[in-house]
Fold this sequence. Notes:
By secondary structure, chain A is α/β, with parallel strands linked by helices. Chain A is 34% helix and 22% strand.
Amino acid sequence: MIVTENRIMLKKERQAQIIKQINLHNKVLSSDLSLELNVSEDTIRRDLNELAQEGKIVKVHGGALSKSYNFTATQAETYAYDEKHIIAQKTISLFQDGMTILCSGGTTIRTIANQLPENLNVTFFTVSPLISLELVEHPNTEVILLGGKLSNTSKISVGGEVVAKINEIKADLCILGVNGFDEDGISDSDYEIVQVKKAMIKASKKVVTPMISEKLNSSLRLQVCSAEEVDYLITELPPEHELLAAFHHKVKHIL
Amino acid sequence: MIVTENRIMLKKERQAQIIKQINLHNKVLSSDLSLELNVSEDTIRRDLNELAQEGKIVKVHGGALSKSYNFTATQAETYAYDEKHIIAQKTISLFQDGMTILCSGGTTIRTIANQLPENLNVTFFTVSPLISLELVEHPNTEVILLGGKLSNTSKISVGGEVVAKINEIKADLCILGVNGFDEDGISDSDYEIVQVKKAMIKASKKVVTPMISEKLNSSLRLQVCSAEEVDYLITELPPEHELLAAFHHKVKHIL
DNA sequence: ATGAAACAGGCATATTATTGCAAATAGTTT
DNA sequence: AAACTATTTGCAATAATATGCCTGTTTCAT
């Protein structure tokens, strides 16, 4: 539905049309807008940049996206943000270009996904739709979502199909969100999730477990793996902190 | 004998004319007004500035706009909420316990997912992590997320693996968000998405396309399917609305 | 890897704004 | 009615804005 009644279109008017189109289609291509609004693509690009500047849309290569479509973790709604921020930075220091990284779910992992540096060039596999949406915001990462039945409680893909799929992967790192961790290792309370996590560990060269220190020395009913299988234990505390003392001869590295 | 037509127009009178024009067309160009009212553009500009000062209009480069023309960010984000609500209700009326339903992405579909009744007992397959998260909040629905490479523009799983997976499914309904729709059928602008949508249509007994009426008669580069392949066309309009007339002999049902 | 599309920045042009000023007009006072 | 003042209008010169085109570069998809 193109407005052609008037020969000349005011800039504001044109920009309003653009916003309308974006809200309609969730995305627009500069080339399409150029045709529909009878102005050059340069003008459209300038419009899109202005609108993006004003925060009304999200500019991408070739066009723009609706803003409501994007959602990323905000500082306010993340519990223990400061601690998780520290953990995220430590974890990210392990990432290197070209790596294949397998991620589970959880808010700690989500913070990591959110804080990835722009230029990082890695491939992520994840069973968490939430994490996948966070990761896909980063232009240089490739995100592969592992599908399956979605668990109502943990919001991750579970089931035999996911496990089978994970078994086909050969990852460099496994970033494992944990619910219970003590000297016996990682534990969890949901059978399905345990199966997925076990598969993830098996599929990866190194296992990284970022967690807030308050989860240390908690244990749940089902065993995921032993502490010895953990390559990197990451908390917000300095490695020499007394709370971590008991783990130094168990896990391979503490950050 | 004409004596009054070329009399001098007072300033107040002229400004009243300007307001009238703006209320009529939602916008005015300084150049047009100058011609219509037989005064210099300078005068028009001065008038527009005064009226803008008084808050009666919004002055922009080249003319002025009606105050209601301006979009605010919040208006933009909740754009067409009411319409989408109506569409969601109509779409949900097609759902029955025990069904298997295949969903694409998009904000219209997201609204549907959000408004599902609590007691509905169906299995959803979706390629959209965002939709999956919305669906999984409903206790009685089973959600199966179709994994694959995540498209960073559309945020849905794409690629051969997804298509292969969809081909294994036998669904009752396919709820297809559309970006372009006209008498030739459904069109889209992204090659990968078209592949996924084609597979979805093939895997389903009935194809349902909920869309805002503004998308009617818009068309994009790539063809997804013909209008004849659509079983239910759902818009916020009553089925007998004239805008839908052209589609009655094309699609099977219009709601 | 390679070719096409999209981008950024600069430049040229046309349109629109602003300002100061003088002429015209309206309103007021004598 | 004449004179005076304030307002309005048009004009010209200058500034600002908007747009399209061009060039070299970046990004993207195959």
